[in-house]
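Structure ticket #2291
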Amino acid sequence: MLTIYDLDENTQTLKTKCPALAQQLYVLFLSDATFVKHATDITGLYADSVLLVTRGVFKMFYNDKFIRFYKVGDIFCTPANGADTSIKIVSEMASEIKMMQSGQFITVVNASPEKSSAWFEYSQIQYQLMTGICAALINNDKAYDINLKTFYSGDHIITEDEFPDCLYEMVDGTATVLVKGTEIGQVNPSEIFGEVSFLTGLNRTASVVAKTTCLVQCIDGQFFSSLIRQRPAMVQKMAKTIAYRLSEVNDKLIRIKTLT
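Resolution: structure written out below.
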């Protein structure tokens, strides 16, 4: 899966503006949240609508090819009924949304210059993000499977001594790294983790426990070769992470040697 973290730095900077803009628009969604079952395509159920994700994750597909996902706090639009049957937006898990018809939403937004300005800027950024993701996908081969999981505070994402069957990327949230119950670090959004055990095949040397609600991409070993071809930016980031951690270990060894 290509994500915002695979795009250029300017586009990533744009993405950081979205949460604050979206928060200005939350007050417009006055209806109660609607429950959406797992694996439901909402493009037909809520056609020509503006949706706010209040729980869960939604995947967007174009001609059955995965394009991007929407998580809690994201606002997005669905096509008019029958306008574009190539687009599907499917719930990755049991989710909840708030919804307004597009016409009603535009009327309400235009009644407030501040909200209108926020929506215009938010929409422009979303368009640029989509353009960047689609451009990056043009020359890719068959996409590898995407497996997004949500972990809540206190949940173990990785357990020490278990077999490493996945590589992980923190999409949203933070987690604590523990060795024998002692905290040694933290995993932040966009960071790769679990890569050393994954590459060596050795059992996990640390536990990773969700500190906040975390959205994590789990990359199965059978899709790693596709990952290398499709997401070179992620592979480069993983290499830098390994190099940085090796540097830390070397620094610790030097300090220990100096003390002895």
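Closing remark: Confidence is low (pLDDT under 50) at residues 1-5.
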